[in-house]
Amino acid sequence: MRRRWLGVLLFLVTIAAVLLGWGLHPQRFLPLAREVEYSSPFRVSSDMPLVLPRSNSDRLIADVEQLAFVRHEAADRARARSYIVQQLQSAGWQVQEQPFGEGGVNLVAERPGNGSTAGVILLGAHYDTVEDSPGADDNATAVATLLETARLFQQKQTPRSLRLVFFDLEEAGLLGSEAYVQQLQSEPTFDGAVILDMLGYACQTPGCQTFPSVLPIAPPTDRGNFLGVIGDQGHPALTQSFTDANQPNLPQVLTLSVPTMGRFTPDLVRSDHAPFWRSGRGAVLVTDTANFRNPHYHQPSDTPETIDRDFFLGSAQTVINAIAILLQGAIGN
Question: Count of CB atoms within 10 A of residue 191's CB?
């Protein structure tokens, strides 16, 4: 009986946390055209305004188009890795392969920070697909955003280090991120992970957006025109960075902070952030909500033609803004 009441108590805590965690940040409408100085409520290690680099839309779209092929079998995943490595090396990064299991290969690249006591921010995404799907949204949009982040930040000096990780075999059960987190356990300078999984699909028809049934509140919208950011309550700075990153003409940002009790929220632990949560590491998932919005999820129709170009470009810019904030941020969460 005691165990039963403990389960009920934990469930009620989860509900309260979810209720308090929702935050919808309205879109604002001003032109976005170039690098801008930006003052953020997020604590930064300098009194100087942040400079948020502007992404290149042509490069982002080109990366998605180049990666929009089925990346399921070993040879196809190797082809995707070859493209990723080529793009990273062209941008000045050194890339390490991290093999795991039977044929899995993660790719890792890092640009050191200049803060003597600052830590590391990881930006990650999986590059594999399910069988028979070219995965333009899932997950070429995210991989393209990592590649554009690499181009924009390679020469920038920030206190924190930026680590880019391209996970393999996410679709086989988060195998790449599980393997990566296992070797991360002994790293004390790790400050958090930003995991991207599907950034390119939007829908405007009422009712086109659904939500996991476990959420104990009425969702704030039934239209899929926002970028979802799901974080754990123990590391609020990661989620807050996306609130601060919301800029004029970018998609709305809807944030959700939850306790890391995945047994109560199975739909919230289906991507590569989950192994970080299970290990007690801070992480956020950034997503267009996948099958809760996108009818092409895991289908042969997940092609570049079904991506909402403006939404994707705005989502990528939001991620870049948040990474700029986190890399400049003071140590701690």
Answer: 22
Residue-wise pLDDT tens for the chain (333 aa)?
Answer: 434 433 333 333 343 444 334 443 333 222 232 343 434 434 444 555 677 899 999 999 999 999 999 999 999 999 999 999 999 999 999 999 999 998 999 999 999 998 877 899 999 999 999 999 999 999 999 999 999 999 999 989 899 999 999 999 998 999 999 999 998 877 778 999 999 999 999 999 999 999 887 765 677 899 999 999 999 888 999 999 999 998 888 999 999 888 765 454 666 788 889 999 988 899 999 999 998 999 999 999 999 999 999 999 999 999 999 999 999 974 344
pTM, two decimal places: 0.86
Cα–Cα distance, 136 to 296 (Å, whole number): 10
> What values do phi and psi take at 142, rounded to 5?
-70, -40
Task: Count CB-CB contacts under 10 A for residue 227.
Answer: 25
C-alpha span between 272 and 277 (Å, rounded): 9
